[in-house]
Each structure stands twice: as structure tokens, then as C-alpha cells.
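A common beginner's mistake is to predict each chain separately and then try to dock the pieces by hand. The better habit, illustrated here, is to supply every component at once so that their relative placement is modeled jointly.
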Amino acid sequence: MSSETKQILTTDGIPLEISLKKAERKNKIKAFLLVAPLLLFLIITYIFPIGEMFTRSIDDKMITNMLPKTFKSMETWDGKELPPEEVFASFLTDFKVLVDNKEHGKLAQRLNKEKNGFNTITKKLFRQVKRNKIDETQSIKEQIMKVHKRWRNVEYWQAIKRTAPPYTSAKYLKAMDMYLNEDNKITQVSEDRRIHRILWLRTVEVAFFVTVFCFLMGYPIAHLLATLPMKYSNLLMICVLLPFWTSLLVRTASWMILLQQQGVVNDFFVMIGLVADDNRPEMMYNKVGTYVAMTQILLPFMVLPLYSVMKTISPSLMRAGKSLGGTPFVAFWKVYFPLTIPGIGAGCLLVFILAIGYYITPALVGGASGTLISNQIAYHMKTTLDWSFASAMGLMLLGGVLVIYWLYNKLVGVDNIKLG
Amino acid sequence: MSKNTEFVKFDKVDKSYDGKVLVVKDLNLNISEGEFITMLGPSGSGKTTCLMMLAGFETPTNGEIYLDSNPISNIPPHKRGIGMVFQNYALFPHMTVYENLAFPLRVRKVQKDEIDKKVDKALSMVSLSGFESRMPAQLSGGQQQRVAVARALVFDPAVVLMDEPLGALDKNLRESMQYEIKHIHENIGVTVVYVTHDQGEALTMSNRIAVFNDGKVQQLSSPDKLYEEPVNSFVAEFIGENNTFGGEVTDISKNVCKVKLQNGEILANPISVNSKGDKTTVSIRPERALINPKDKMDNNQTGKIEEVIYHGDHTRVRLDLLGNKEFILKVPNSSNELDLKLGNEIKVGWNSQDARALDPK
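With all components supplied together, the output reads:
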């Protein structure tokens, strides 16, 4: 109690705490200034883009801005029967503005995404408006309904109302092969159109098995590296690192040369009589190709953390295990292996996270059955230009990685990770 | 019950790592049951290699090692039943003290309650009862060392090997651990093969010491004999302090020989010289040479004081004696009537029996 209340003073009479803070302030500022460029860099290149991706993925403001009056008047409409005259009138007002700005095409496109058939009826309405056929002194509702029979269908008005909120989860649902139906319920798309879920599962599966293969191959290599005399281990280390010094594209291309049906590996199999010349197995443009190439490319990421951990394990521990009566296997399993777990954790996490977002290799050697979710993201970025959908999938991937990281932290503990 | 004097036997053992250099040359060594034997030597002398061959981590290039009359060269380490204490303790860092000690018992499929009993006993032996649930990293160096000793003993091995176990401890702790290990050995009577390069450690602990140099055992004898009666100049140099004179034998009889030095002549005890004309190195322990000897001694010389170093309980005096400028004398602190001043000439005498004429350096 007394130590809490009694303030310790320096010889100058300033409280010790304040004096300490003063003394350390300069260093703290210096330290902050040193990391400031990196912090700025991270904010600009990482945090800001992720935020941007997020807003883009849920953003649905375009249509909200196009039809402000319509949505305002729709607020009181219960959505069960056709909307009242007032809604039709404000829709026409909004539409006219769009026609003036030549933006009615965008509206048609957006509405058509919500419900098929809007394209035609929007165009028809456009023609009527363009020719000034609509008399604003008469009932606008009647006139619009005459333009096309779908304008008389309440479902189309419901569809318009559904687009009212400025934010939407539609892209996320779409990435899970689901959508919001007319009753605002989450529904699965018909079975023949569920492509994304297959891709997600395949991505996780490929990443998982690539991690397993990398572990099975990397562990003995790392052990060898850690135990060989320096001159041999240096040579082996260069062999392990060699892939790092070669362009990813070159490596993938060389796998294409090796794995294709008329390729080196198949030629070899035919030569030793393993397969018939007219029955060469397909090792590329499917999952096999993806597995082989990704395992080879990601292997160093498994070997290096394992190696650095194994290097710190004293060889006398294995000897102690043996001298105390453990068979070589027991000594390995009870003594050596538990000590390498931090390295295994780091290596597996690294390989899995890299594999789950892998793009170039599956795109080149994966074929149709070997493409992963990242290829789908790239497809929407470059071909369909549906950036908000690509953003949504990208964020889901990021979320997945964070979940894995969290799980790993729960199970093994992140402090156990050792990269060196 | 007579003890087996060839409990561990090295029989003409050679060891080479690269096929060019022999690290251990024609080693013949018998260790009796219950003995505490120390392999002492400078680094690279082959002592650790011998230990590793006995433990099974290295195989002899030639020759055979017998344990209780059974050849063991082809038995893998885990079947030899030899306990080992490693230089850096080699405690399993991911196991508690209890698990470390239980490891050798568990792999031998000992019952759980039996394990508990034995671990308890072993821990109390090294006075670490109550430390069962600690991790090795939470222990001090000395405690870790004691755990390592307990672990090597917990499964009642016939032989325990210790590879410089105290090398990493500070001086005080090392000394107390020396006594502790010695007492444990006396209490349970296990055969201990101990490797060290610290002669003090070897002298205090062992029944017998094997001095290694250049892959060979230079001398194998009890600590006192090793110190008092070194058989060659390497042992004389390596164990304790030593004053040497290089010279040539000019006359030799049964118990005494005359050695001609560069500028002088002394009498010495012929150990490894046989005839006139042999080159020799004469070795005298500093405490055997006295200043102004009262008793009659057969070597009497005069030297000039070059340096006086105060050591508390004794004073070391460096003399220029018969051309040897490194001649050291130890003067006990009780004899303070002496006038030890730089440049003074003093009389020094020693018995020819204490001046051992060994092989030339």
C-alpha cells in the first residue's frame, strides 16, 4: 500500500516515472521515425487496398444513386401487390434523368442481373420516353404498364426494391453458390450451376495435399541438411535454394515440358515399359500436374524453417535417447520429432497459406480440373471485369487464411513458430 | 566375491575416421567392476573417441571391446545398457525432470509405480526431490547436471560414462559436483568411466587415471602414483607443475645417474634412460626443491631470483637455475624468514630420487 502511494522522486525532485518517460521519449520518437516509412508503406499497399476491396465487394450504391426518388417512394410500399401510382411516377422521373445522362443502359444491366428480362422492358420504356410518348398529365402507372406486360408483373417491381440497400452481400453469397431469393432468403443455386464451392473445396484439398507432400519430402531433406558435414550440406542447400533463383514461370514451363503426354517423364515410362506407348497417362492439365509442380515449387518453404529448427537440436540428444535404451525409432519419435514441431508448424503454415492462393502454376499446368479459386478470381478481374465479385472472393480467401492462422494458434500456439 | 578386473576391456583397439590418421592407436585397457576410471588428456588425444566407442556411437576400426566378457562392437547403443552423461547435459528440453528420468524406464517397459519409485530414489540421490515437474530450462546449470547424472543412473546400468560433465559449470560448483559424483559412485558402486581434460578433476575423483596423448595411453595408474611417479615427460608435464632440464646421461648406476646439462651437472633417478649417452629430460616437482635445505640433499645448486609472485598460501619464485630461466619454486607462507628479493642468489637443493630422468622432449 505504502509503495503505491509513495512517489519515488529523483534527486532533482521530479517524480521518477516522469523522468523515465522523458529520458525514453527521444528514443521512442527515433524508433517510430525509423519504422514510419514501413508503416506508411504497409498502410498504402496493404491496409488501404484491403479496405478498398472490402467496400467494393459489398458496394451496391450505383443503382441507389440512379433511382433515388423511386426507392424513396418505395419505402412505404409493402411489396405484395403492384406499387401505387406515386412509385411509377418517381421511377419515370429517375429514368428520365438517366436517359438524359445516357445511363439507362447501365440500369438495365444492373436490373437484369437481379432478374432476367429487365433488359427488354427497359429498352422498350427507353424508346417510349425518347419519343415523348408518355403524357405526364395522365396516370403514369397505366402508361408504363402498357409498355410491356412485365411492367405489370409485381415480381419485377419487387426486384427493383431489392436493389435499394446501398450494400449487398450478394457477391459473397454468389461465391458460395447461393443467392437471396424473392423472399429475402438465402437459397442455393441449382445444382448444375454450383461451380464455386467445388473450386473452394479443391483449393483447400490441393493446398492440404501439397502441404502433406512438402512435409513428407522436406523433413528428410531438412534433417540431412542439418546433420551433414558443412561441405556437403552447403552443396545440398544450394540444390534446395536453386528453385528460388529461377523464375516461377520458367519452372512451371519446365514442368510442362516434363509432364506433357509426349514429355520427358512419359517417354521414360514408355522406355522402361511401365506404360504402353499408345496409352500414355495424362499428367498435366489435371490435378496431378498441379500437385507435382506446386510441391516442387513450395518445397523450399518447408525445408528452410525445418532446417533452421533442426540445426538447433543438439545431436547429443538423439545419442542420449539411444544410450538410455531407446531404439533409434523411439529416440527419433520421442526426442527428435517433438523438438521439430515448431519448424513443422512454421513450414506447414507457410506452404499451406502460399498454396491456397497459388495462381500461375495451376493456371498453366492445372487445366480445367486443376484450376483453383485464385484462377477464378483472376478470371473475374480480367475477363468479366466483375471486380466486386473478385474482391469478395479475395477477401474470403484472406478470411480463410486468418481462420487457419487462428486455429493454428489455438492448437499449437504461434509463439511456437520458429523460422530461424 | 571377487570383482571382475576385466569388466570393461579394450583389446587392441584402433580407430581412424578418415583412413589416414589413427585417432586411437592399439588401445589395451582393463577396467574392473565398480572402479572409477578417468580418461585424461588434451583435446584431440582420443579420449572422447574411446568413450564413444564404448557407448556405441563409434565403431572400432580394429580390435574389440568387451563388456563383462561379451564383445560389444556389434551391439547397437540402446542395447548396451550403458548410462551416459553428456558434456552439455543433453536433457530432453520438451520433457519435465520426471519425464526425463522416466524415459529410460519407459522404453524398458517398467511398471508405472516402479518407475515412480526409481525416479524418486534417483532424484533424492542427487538431492533434487520435488523438482519432478520442472522443465530443464527452469533449472540452473548445476541442477541440470545433477538431473543428467540421475538419468544416467536411474535404470541401474552396469557402467556409466561421463563425457566432461562438469565442463560448463563455474569453478565452485564444479568442485562441489566432483565430490557429489564421487560420493554417488562410492554409495552405489557403479563402474564409472569419466572423461576430462581437467587434471584436478581427475586427481580428486578417480581410482585410476589413464593419461591419453596422441591416441595412446601414456600412463595408467592411481592419482598419487601419476603425480609422484610419472613415467614419461608428457605425463610429468601434463599433470601438475614441473621443472625440467634437458641433458645427456654421462654416468649411470642402478638408482642414480649423472646428467650433463648445458652448464652444469645434476644427479637424477634413471626412469627411462638405460645407458651412457642417452638424451633425457629431468623432471622435478616445484615442491620437491627446497631453499636452503636443512637436511642433506645430493643436489645442491645456486640460482638467481627472477620473479616473485605472491599467491596467498604460498609464494612462487622463478629462478634462473643451471640455464633454466623457468625454474619454479613454491615457498609455503609459513617460512617468512627467507629473503626473497629480485636478483638475490639463493641455494636450492633436492634429492636425486625426486629428479626423474625421463625420455627427452
